[in-house]
What does this fold into?
Amino acid sequence: MNIFRLAGDMSHLFSILLLLLKIHTIKSCAGVSLKTQELYALVFATRYLDIFTGYISLYNTLMKMFFLWSSFTIVWYMRYHNVVRRSYDKDQDTFRHYFLILPCFILALLVHEKFTFLEVLWTFSLYLEAVAILPQLVLLQRTRNVDNLTGHYVFFLGAYRSFYILNWIYRYFTEQNYYKWITWISGLVQTALYADFFYYYVKSWRNSERLQLPA
Amino acid sequence: INDITFHDEL
It folds into this structure.
């Protein structure tokens, strides 16, 4: 564990807590893409299967259980909670996220570290996570005024993978022949998708004006 | 642990 990875995990944890706070306290999911939440639930479900087969540390296991629990809870709130679901703008959240799942799965069947059931699903979860934010970014462009909590949620979600990139650089230079091309390239693609969001987020923060993404 | 590729990161 290094400071970059801890910062990344804490940023990820914080982003989910922000979203849970928004949904649980003000019972609203306005501006939040259900499709991105569903993709993330699938990412965690296919990546954290190893909590049944292996044990790394208490931290690792607790974080995996929290990510699994929170992602499915958020999807449940947005789909079935009769107050929250009313604030979900389904006619704006129209990204065809099913078109992301199959190509990621096929790519995982073709490009992976080892051709085993767990490893292919793990690789699939990496590719899917790289593109999972797309429905949310599209929704933000359509939602004229993005509320602060949603903006902060997306920012910290993007920041977590950026910290992970620093973590991979650190590990590359400090550990003997440590390299994970698949993870690194997926992480770079994932972070690159946030580039313009980061630009407008920092700009709105500097000018202390509401966050607005150009259509 | 070399039978399953070891993923220590979240």
About this structure: Chain B touches chain A at residues 1, 4-5, 7-10 (CB under 8 Å). The mean pLDDT of chain B is 69.
